[in-house]
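re: ur question from yesterday

yeah so i grabbed the chain u mentioned. its 233 aa long if i counted rite. heres the sequnce exactly as i have it in my notes:
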Amino acid sequence: MMRSLILIGMLFLAEVAFAAEESASLIAKVVNAYGGRDRLEATVALRETGKVEAATQIGRSGLLLRAFARPLRLRSEIGDENKGKEVRILDGATGWRDGKAAAGPALQAMILQAVRLDLPWQLLTHKDKVVEKPGVERQGKRLRVLEVPVESNLTVTASIDPDTGHILYSCGTISGGPMGVMNFETAYEDFRTVGGLLFAFKETNLASGTKTADTVLSSVEILKAAAEQEFRP
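ran it thru and got these structure tokens back, copy pasting raw so excuse formatting
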């Protein structure tokens, strides 16, 4: 009996080690596809411009300005001066929405967005905590799914094409809050290289399965440093 238990334990540990090795290999493929460790590590700040087309009446359409800086800094402006702008700002654990302090799901959603904008690097730097989830079928292709824990009730998953290493789909999840489980999903298309780094120039955004917007980028600028004023209301 004891020998059987020892054998079962050894087999379990071997399976865990194999799974970890397979996940590490996939993360390495993602990192290489998005520009390599050195380039990703050196990319501390970005500025993106484009356009958002809302899919719901309550959504905001218009020009997009999006700035990101590590570790968790984000500025998102949608709209124009004539019709008004929606402005979301995140500076670490503090956030604002249209100039007012954000808390709860409104703040957590911005944290998840900042993480997904840096997802290849997040996978690499948190690889010891990454968990591989069951794969998914999307558009006739089997994708592998890696989950990154962000906070106690926040996670982000990356659905990855195992052939190319491209992240084709991500999902940020808020669980355990007053509104139950909330999912913020993004599908990625139109991959282009800028400064040796790979970016998806088209995003389709969904909230808990309902399409909310299409985002199309027109430019991506890799910055040497963040503009501090961008992350203040």
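noticed a couple things. The helical segments are 2-33, 37-42, 104-117, 119-125. also Residues 5-19 have pLDDT under 50 and may be disordered.
anyway ttyl
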